[in-house]
Structures are given as structure tokens and as C-alpha cells.
Amino acid sequence: MPPEDLHTVVTESMDDNKPERMAVPDLFDEQEEITAVQNIVAPPAAPPQPYLAVPSFQETPLDEFNTRQPLLSLAFPTLFPYGEAEFLQQRERKVEYSDYIRHLIKHELGTFAQHPRFRYVAFNTILRRQAGSKAGFFVRGRDIPDLDELRAAFQEDTPEARALLRSVTTLANSLRGTGAYWSDRRRDLYAYIKNLGAAHFFLTLSAADLHWDDLMRWMPNYDDWRAADSATRIRLARANLRDNPLIAAYWFHHRYRVFQETVLDPKFGVTDYWSRYEWQGQRPVMQYSPDERQNTLSELTDLVNRVQRHVCNERYCLRKHRVSNQLACRFHFPMALRDEPGLEKPLGSTFYRLYPVRNHPALNIYNPLVIMAWQANIDIAPCTGTKSLLQYLTKYISKGEPESPSYRHLMQTAIQGANRNRPLQSAVHKLLNRLIGNRDCSAQEVLHFLLGLPLQMASRDVIPVDLRPEALHRVTFHPRRDDGDLAQGSSKCYKYMARPPPIEDVTYLRWLRAYQHTGAQLPRRRAKDRVLRYFPIYDPDKDVEDFARVKMMLHHPFRDMQDLLSLEDNHFPTFTDAYTWCRQAHVGIHEADCYGEITVEDVPEELFEDVDLPEQTPPPQSWELLARQRPGPNPAERTEDPDALGQRDIDRQYDWTPHIGRCPDDAFPRDYWQQQRALFPATLSNTAAVEPDSLNEKQWQIYNLIVSHYLQWLKSPVAEDAGITRSPILRAAPTGVAAYAISGRTLHSLFRLPVPVGTTYQPLQAAQLRDVQELFQGIQYLVIDEKSMIGLRTLTWIDNRCRQIFPQHTEQLFGGLNIILAGDFFQLPPVLQKPLYDISANLTGLDLLGRQRYWSFDITIELDTVVRQQGADPQSVAFRRTLDHLRTQEVSREDWQLLSTRAAVQLDQEQVTGFDKHVHLMFHRAAVDQHNHQSVRDLRTPVIRITATNSSPAAAKASAKEASNLTQDLFLSIGCRVMLLNNTWVERGLVNGSFATIRDIVWLSTTEDVHESPPAALLVEFDAYDGPIWLQDDQRHRLVPIIPVTREFQFNGELCSRTQFPVVLAYAITVHKAQGLTLDYAVLDISQSEFATGLRYVAVSRVRTLQGILFSTTFDLADLTRTVPSAAILARMADAFRRANQHVSISTSPYCAVLTKIYSGSMTPRHLLGPVPSPRITRRHPPAVHHSQPRVLHRLHY
Questions:
Q1: Is residue 758 part of a domain?
Q2: Chain mean position to CA 915
Q3: How far apart, in Å, are the Cα atoms of 177 and each of 242, 438, 622, 1132?
Q4: With CB atoms 3.0 to 4.6 Å apart as the test, which of 298, 376, 887, 966 could cross-link to 208 if both were Cys?
Q5: Which residue, among 439, 471, 1168, has the nearest Cα to 861 in the 3D structure?
Q6: What is the pTM of this model?
Q7: DNA helicase Pif1-like DEAD-box helicase domain: which residues (predicted)?
Q8: Number of domains within the chain
Q9: Range of the domain at 576
Q10: Average pLDDT for the chain
Q11: Is residue 553 part of a domain?
């Protein structure tokens, strides 16, 4: 039939230029009646019109991932008029951001889905969140190069850079909708063709969303649309699609699924399919009657005439022919008429194509049943072979995706602006963001994504199969349930080799296709066989051995790779020999594996080139003009990286010359603090801070137990011989902060224990032993606080050291010394050691000995009164109750509601800002480093980079953790907060964990360049220090120096050393570092998973009051609760149950004054081990030693 004239093509963008609307609140109060009357009698001057002032601009944009400001309600006040239902609002259960957005766009009022910009903000945020999450996951467990090394690697295109880029490429494949995603789906489709053979036909279904009656029934004004003329229907349909893209997006998906199930599958007997969605920015306007359809030839003729005719235009198909230089249709329209079908090769193609009967030169191929059922434009074509299909896919599967720069170019660009503090993560994040933003998305595509609808569907699952040698197989990583840290999974090959006995004879190929890969590995009875996407594909002519190994792996059961070299009592030296024998002996037995490359000829160069068309950019809307006013970088000026501390303008322009020679060159020798300790000796206080009369019942039990035991010892002959000239008690703790809190020493310094923990324990040499024995002279009791941080191995070392200190009692536990353990097992466990309460059945060596020594403690007294959090008001009582529940992971809804009142989003901005000066407690070191970096950056004061001095270039590459906590580069400024990382003078408060403020940085007078030579000292003011000072400045700051220290360490098998100041920035610290501290104010984040049980409890319990806490991030009730207690909690409860029968009740006794003189410290639970005489100092000719029999053997638990 002769075609009718078609209307011009319009685009969605033509409809977007309608006037924008917004709500402007009335900022003036309503007039009272008397005022209104007065205004009528004597009209006043015209009042100013209500308006909203545009807020000022700032250089840095708001962070859409911030956890303090409800960004959505600030950006979209008309959608959140009362600020309710914000994403940052606390909820009882965890809600993912994508689920939250999907709920909003399905809101019955439709305001969120109809908003012209909300959907794009949500879409962008979700993709950027995914990119950030994947980038963070990517760098975990990797050796992170610095920014300069990263830039050099990609500039030189090193093998390491190429390997890194391949990993990033694989990471990008999971970002839905990106070019990398569709490239990966194309590889899936290749695997489909190789596994299942060529498809029978292609089918393309277009949307006639301007005239589908079933779609318009769901749109507003359906009756008006149905009754209107053609032009009005088009206008109404366009308005409906513009204002309700959510309905159109979902309806197309639903319509296609129903169409496939009710039409395609029954008609063509479809057994397998692969499909994807595409969106285009322009839509032809077609007129179509909404009358009831009739299944007649006339109806078919009318439908084909309207939707199947191809009309050439320059924007769609007309391209310049490379040979003739004339405009021609790239789809070869108009086509010649045909009376008979035939197979022919199109111009420029090497494969045949079916040409059906044709009676019109401009009609697209169609199937009558399909087009009558679909009622819109279709394209259908049979496949003529596997190679032709693969060639078509190579050329067209990713059509519509713009050509992107190479990954290497993208990575080089991303590295240029990467964050120096975390260069690799920042570069990967930027690269992924570039992939996300390299194309425009229509409203329907965005809402299709936000609804969580699939972009691609198939009848079978596709899984990648790694066929490289076993050592190179990829393994999966997943967060552990208990602590959220990454746990290494198993590769598919390893899972197969560890398969259960019932499937012993199942081949690897059959297992991959038809069996579950987790749990009991049962057959997937109702699911179709998986499609296997092999990699790599070995060449049978070049990679002979690897190709043979793959074939043997797929077709013969094995538990170990070497099993494949023995077949039916035949042993072969190589896989090639085994495969050769298999091919001859097992002809026709093995199922087809579809392994091998199908050769595809190169796609010929396109005969048509694009036509340069003038751009028709629509005028910018008001919000676009407003956005362009944001300050941006001036190309003529130097671009400054605000994170490049030490290289910013403020850093480079500051003159540090006055700091050179400010102090005498001999003022700060390396043994400065040794000299101070010698000149001003300090002893640990033994005066009780609490009067005995004020003790509660449980404290009285401990008091009387120790006093009674000590008085018994005083009556012994050994005590009379030894004499009492000093306190018989020493106090110690695992950390410097905890030791200072009880006026004690650290365990490692007291007993000369190995540091770090992984090093080997060694007996003390004679000189060291004499010093330690002198310290223990007359000591009868050792109080060890923070017992939760003591490991089984450490307890064994303490026992060994005590037996060496007291050689006359080596047969007794701890050399006969009375040991009192104090603390709370529900706080943090030891690092890299088994805790004392560990209940593992497979302990060996030092850990097993440690358990034996711990179980020798057989008396427990449990204190049940909280000392740190005081107060009798309802809030204080509720806070203590919440801490108890947080301690045992039994948080209730009421507890969560109480803590949620201190979330930043629940407080006003002034309250939140008031916490900026207080310390942040964080779970992870990386988060601490990032916050400290940002804090010193935001001081806007000059920063100096202090580089450590290393024994070799290799030592400079060691991390702070590997170099005994000495950082390679310190970025410090005058006025910044730091934390000491050295137990410089425990008795005076200079311990590992002490806070200070830098007041000055000084260099020797001989220094020529402060950027090349390290300072002589950092002059700081400690928060808690009661010793001699070096200087008091004009602001009455009590200044003392921090001197560089040198520490040795093993790195890559080499003994190295590093000299650096033992400090780190202290705007944030880890929770581990905070154990033992008591804080008035702190900023916390407890929303993350605990990698060590007790992190949340320790973080929250450091602060005295609830009002002293600010939670920087919201947390849901589900974050704080567990359906099943963690393994660590169960172990602690089991230990408490074992000690339940050890609890004692001791009557009061009159020996209060005695304990006041011999014991001081916080009244917390203690473990006691029985009495022994004082140690004897080892001499060259030791005198006779008096042995005493212990009168009582006490072992105390609580």
C-alpha cells in the first residue's frame, strides 16, 4: 500500500522547556483585622514582595554522602516540607539507600517520581555510592603505592600498572548501565552462543508509548485522551509521559514479560532467550486510533503502514558513503522489490542474510502475529549461522553506547586529581565515576534503574570459570558476620575438589553446570544447566599442555590436579599425554564442553560515516544558570590541591626561618628524657584515692580479702626476716594510658616482654635480670588492670618471667608472686593473641600453657556498680542501663532510642559544631588517618612535612605498622593536636596515648633547608603532665620537647631502622587507643560492623555522660542487635559460667588502715593468686635463700 505522510520527529527535550514551578512561602504574618481596616482607610506604601534569598556559594560542594546534614530535605524542601522520612533518620531496621529511593518513587502521590530532578539526584547518588563502595573494597588487602609511584607506573605502563588496570576493569563490569557493564554482558552472550549454538532469530520490540491504549489507561486524563482528536491525543500523551515516566518505565517492562509468556513462548516454542533493554532520546510521533482492535487483514495493513515504514532522515540513518561521498541510508533503504525470498550477502558483508518477499521498498521486516499482538514497531530476522551471529554481536550489541577513551587514559586522568592521602582508592573511585557519567540517561531509563528492574534478562545463569593453573585462581572475599572484616572464600575449583562423597564421580564440567556450589552441593533439579564462560581460552597449537590440562579437568573427576595424570591404571608424565590417551579411549563418552574459540572475521570498516549536523541545544533553564554561578577553577591560575599538605600556597609561602636556631643546639640531646628522669625521680603514688568507709559491699569483699591475706603474711618468719621498707604492691596494665590511670607501669616495660607481640620471647640477660629483680625486691602483689587486653601467650610470658625473677620458686606458678587481674572481659580483646577466656579446643604451645595458668585463678569477686558514669537523674540511670545492654549485645528498642537522641541529624547545627574541637573515636585506622588529615587541612595554618630518616631506601617503603609505629611522613602545624606514641615517662603521664598541642617546631642553627632537614624538637603542651617543663611561654603554655626516636624493625627479611618523632595527629583515635581513657566529650560512629567484639561498648562507655556524646552517623536498631550472640560473647559467657562457683562473700574486718597504705587504684574486679616471699636479687655468689610454704593459695575471678 502507498505510505501516508509521517509527522515530523519530536524529542522529549522539546517538552522540557515549559515554565518551571516552585513553591514560595509567605514570609509575612497575616494581618490582624484592625490593621486591615486601617490599610483600607489609609493605604500604606506597597509592601515588598515575598522572596527567598539565594544562599551564598562556597568553593567546595556539599558531600552527598555526609552523615550530619539531611541533604535530601535541604535540596528538595517541597518534597520534604517537614524534614520527615529523611534517609539519615534512624530506623529500627537497616534500610539500603536503593530500597529507600524505590519506596519514595512508588509513593502514592507520585511527587517523588514526577519531580524533574529528584530522580537524577537519587540515580547519581546510588551509582556514586556503588562506585565508592567498590573502590574501597578494591583497595582492601592491597599494598598501596603513594601518588607519585602510581602516576609513574601508569605513565611508564609497567606490568604492575597493566595488572592493576585489568582488576579495575573487572570491577567496573558490575556497574549497571555503563559501557563496561554491557561489554561484560556481550561476553555472556558469546558464552550463550558457544554453549547452546546459534539462536534462531533476532527480535526487536519498540515502544509505542504515545498511542498504547493499555498504557494510557494508567495515566491521568485517560477519558480526555480517548475522546480527543489525533493532535490532542499526541499532546496529552507527551505530557503524560513527561510527567509520569515511572508508569511508562514499569508498564513497558511488565508488558514485555506478559507478551513473552503469552505470545512468543507458545508461538515459537522458545526454550532459551537473551534480551536487553535500550532507550533512545527521540520518538517518532504516530497517529493511531484507540478503537477496539480487530484481528483482520485490514487491521494488519493499517498497523504495518503506520509503524513499519522506514523514513530516512539525517538524524537517524542518512550517512555519507565513503566511496561515492553521497548521502545514503545505512540500513540500505529503499530496498528492491522481491517476488521470491532468498539468501544473499549484503554489500560489505561476508555472511548471508535472508531477504523475504517484498512489495514495498520502505517496509521493515515483520511477523504478522508478533506485530498484531505487540501493536508497535518490531524488527525480526533469522540467524544464518554462529559466525554471522557473533559478527553481528561484535558490531551491534553495545550500540547506543558512546565511544569511551581507553581505560589507561581514564586512569591517568583520574590519578592527576587523586587524593594524596588515599591515592589508589581515590583514583579508582574517579575512574568508576567517569564510566558512570559518560552518557546521558532518559527519565524512563533512570526510573527503570531506580525500580530495580533488570537491564538484561536470560533463561540461564552465566558463570565465569577460571581455567588457569590452580595457584592463580581467583577467590572471593566476603565480610565476616562477627566483625565485618574480609574473609577469604574458596575458588570454584577448590570447592569442587572438596565436594562431598555422594558426588565423588561427578565431573567438574557437570558440577559447574548442574550442581549447587555451596552447602551440600545438591543438584539444581528445576533450573536449567548454567552457561559457562571460560577464561582463558588456550590455543591447542600453542598452549598444548594448558589446553590438555583444561580438557582433563572438565571431563574427569579429581581431588587433586595430579589425579588427572592417572587414568584407569595408566600414569602419564604430562597432561598432553593423558589427553591424547583420553581422546582415543573415550570416544563419544564425554559431554560437549563448548571450550575453544570460534573464529570470527574482523568486522569490515563501516561504509558510512557520520554527517556533521548543527547542534540544537535547548536554552538553559533557571536552575542550570544558577549552577553555573558556582565558583570554579581559573585556568590562568595555579590549581591547588587542598589535600596536598605541605605543598599548598599557605605552606610554601610560610617562612620557617625564624624557627631555626630558636633553641640552643645542645638543648635537646637524644637522652633528654633519661636525664630528666634521673634529675627529677618520680615514684608511683601509693596513697589511696578512696576512703575505706566509702566502699560498697563488693569493694569491701576485695578489700578484706587482700588485707586478711597480707596480715597473715606479715606474721610469717620470712616477712620478719625481709623487713617492710616499701610498698609490697606493683601495678601494671597492657597500655600506657591504662598504666598511667592506675599509677602503674606497662606490662612490656615491667617484664621486658617482646615488642611487637609476634617476636620471640627470650630470657633476660644477667644485667637486665638484676635491674628487674631490684624492682621486685619486697613486692608481694602485682595488680594487672585491663585484663581483657591480655592474651594467653602474654600470660605465659609473665609466668616465665616471674619464675626467672624468683629463681628460688621456679616450681610455683608466677614464681610465687601474688597476681591480681582486674578489668572487664566484655571490653576489647588482645591484638593478635587469644584472649584469656578463649574456649577453643585446638590450643597448642604457649596458648595452651596460658590457659592452664589462667584457670589456676579460682576466686572471683564481681563488682556491679558503675563508677565512670555517675548521676541519679532518669537520663543517667537510663544511660547506665543502656551501657549494660550494649556490653552484652542485648540492646533493646528503648536503648536504641536513647542513644539516637545524640545523633548529629537530631541536633541543631550549633550543638553539632560545638563538638568539632573534641576527639573522634573510630573503629578503623584508615578512617582515623583520613579524619586527622582533613582536620589539620581545615586549620588553614602552614603545614610542614617532616620525613623520617631511614637506614635504607627499602626501609622508607615500610608502613608505620611495619616500622614500629613510626610514620614515614608527618604533616604537622603549630597548634595542631598530636598523640604521643612512646612511654616516655609513665610516672609523670607521658605515656603512649597522651594528648598534646604543638606550640612550636624548632631546628638546629646549622639547618639550611627546613624542608630537607628534620626539626630538632617539637615543643608541645601535654594535657596531663606533672613533671618539670623546659619553658613556659608568653601564653603560659608549659612546654616540653618531643625528641625523635630511632627504632629497629624487620622489613622484607632485612633489619631496618627509622628515626622519626613518635607522634601522630590526634583529632581522631581508634577505639583500641581509647581503652582506659575517661572522656567528657567525644564524637563516635557506631554504625559500622565490629571487627572486634566490644568496640561499640568501649567507645560509648569512654564518655561520662550521654550529653557528652555526638554520633556523627545515624545507626539503626538492627546495627546494634544480633539474633544470635557472637562467638566472642558466647566465649565470655562460658567463662563467666565456669567462674560462677568461685564467687566468695567475706565478712568485714578491721584492717582498713593497712590496705590504705598498701593499695590504691580504681576499685574494679580482681583475681588473686596466693602468698610468697619477696624475690632475691641474683648475684655472682647468691646467698642462701629462705623458702616458705604458702599459707593460702587464692585464685580470684569476677
A1: yes
A2: 25
A3: 22, 11, 29, 48
A4: 376
A5: 1168
A6: 0.72
A7: 728-872
A8: 2
A9: 460-585
A10: 78
A11: yes
